[in-house]
Write a structure and sequence with these properties.
- Keywords: Signal.
- Pfam families: VldE.
- InterPro entries: ARB_07466-like_C (IPR058593).
- The chain has 248 residues and is an alpha+beta fold.
- The chain folds into two domains: 81 residues, no CATH class; 152 residues, no CATH class.
- The chain has seven helices and eight strands, in the order ααααββαββααββββ.
- The strands form two sheets. It has a six-stranded antiparallel β-sheet with strand order 3-4-8-5-6-7.
- α1 packs antiparallel against α4.
- It is globular and about 65 Å long.
Length: 248
C-alpha cells in the first residue's frame, strides 16, 4: 500500500520502524524472538548473501536501537488497530437471508424517501451505522446515499438497491486528516467482514477491491472508472465516498 493511501498515524509509525531497521542487524544480546541476529547474517550461505550495507557495517544495532525497534513495532500495531485494519469480526451481525420469499429491492431506503434496498444492503447499512455512530452527520460518516436511478450508468447496483455511497467528508471534496482516516476505517471494516455482510465489492480512494482481488501496489487494485467515471475527480474516482455493493 502506498503511503498516500494510509492514515497519517500509520504512515508515521511505518516510517519510524523503517528508520529503526536500517540502523543495523540485531545482536544476540538484544534477544528479539524471531529476529535475525548478526551471527545469522554471517552464517547466511554464500548463495543467499546480500550486498553489504555500509549502514549495517558502520552502525551495529545496540540494545537501545533494539528497544527502538520494539517501540516502533508496537506503534505500527496500534496504528493498524486504530485505523480499523484489524477488526473483531465476531461483533458484526451476520446477514441472514431468512426464509424463501420475495427478494430484490423491497425494503425502504432510509437514505432516500421513495427508494428501496435489498435485505443485504439494508442490513449492511444498519450494521455500519451501529458500528460507527450512524450515517447522517455521524462522527465517522457524514452522509450516505443508497438507492438512485443512476441514469448515466444503468449497470450500477444503485438502481437495484444493492449499493450505498458513504461520505466521511463533504461530497465533491478530497478528504484529509481525520476524515480520510475515518474513510479507511469503514472501508477496512467492510473488507474484513465481507463474508458476514455479503459485500460484493468496494471502491475507495481510486482503488477497487472484491474478495477475489489480491492487493496490487496498494489496497485492492487501481480503479479504472469503467469508461463511465473520471477517476481524477473526487466523486468519479471515489475519493470523497466509499462505494459498497452487496451480493444480493
Amino acid at each position: 500500500m502506498r503511503a498516500s493511501m494510509l492514515p497519517g498515524a500509520l504512515t508515521t509509525a511505518l516510517a519510524a520502524l523503517l528508520s529503526a531497521l536500517v540502523l543495523g542487524p540485531v545482536t544476540e544480546s538484544d534477544q528479539i524472538p524471531g529476529w535475525p541476529t548478526a551471527t545469522a547474517e554471517r552464517a547466511r550461505p554464500a548463495s543467499l548473501a546480500r550486498e553489504p550495507s555500509p549502514i549495517r557495517e558502520s552502525l551495529p544495532l545496540t540494545d537501545g536501537r533494539a528497544g527502538l525497534i520494539r517501540d516502533s513495532l508496537d506503534a505500527v500495531r496500534s496504528a493498524i488497530e486504530e485505523s480499523g485494519a484489524a477488526v473483531d469480526r465476531s461483533s458484526v451481525p451476520r446477514y441472514d437471508p431468512g426464509p424463501p420469499g420475495p427478494k430484490g429491492c423491497t425494503l425502504p431506503d432510509p437514505t432516500r424517501p421513495g427508494g428501496c434496498l435489498t435485505a443485504a444492503a439494508r442490513h449492511g447499512l444498519e450494521a455500519m451505522a451501529a458500528e460507527f455512530g450512524g450515517w447522517r452527520e455521524g462522527p465517522v460518516i457524514r452522509s450516505a446515499s443508497c438507492w438512485d436511478v443512476h441514469a448515466w450508468n444503468p449497470a450500477s447496483d444503485h438502481p437495484h438497491g444493492r449499493a450505498c455511497d458513504l461520505f466521511p467528508s463533504a461530497p465533491g471534496a478530497f478528504p484529509e486528516g481525520e476524515e480520510l482516516a475515518n474513510g479507511w476505517r469503514v472501508a477496512n471494516w467492510f473488507r474484513a467482514n465481507a463474508a458476514s455482510l455479503r459485500v460484493e465489492y468496494l471502491i475507495w480512494q481510486g482503488r477497487y477491491w472484491d474478495p477475489s482481488v489480491p492487493d496490487a501496489d496498494g489496497w485492492g487494485r487501481p480503479y479504472t472508472g469503467g469508461g463511465v467515471y473520471d477517476v481524477r475527480d473526487p466523486t468519479g474516482g471515489h475519493f470523497d465516498h466509499l462505494h459498497v455493493s452487496f451480493a444480493e
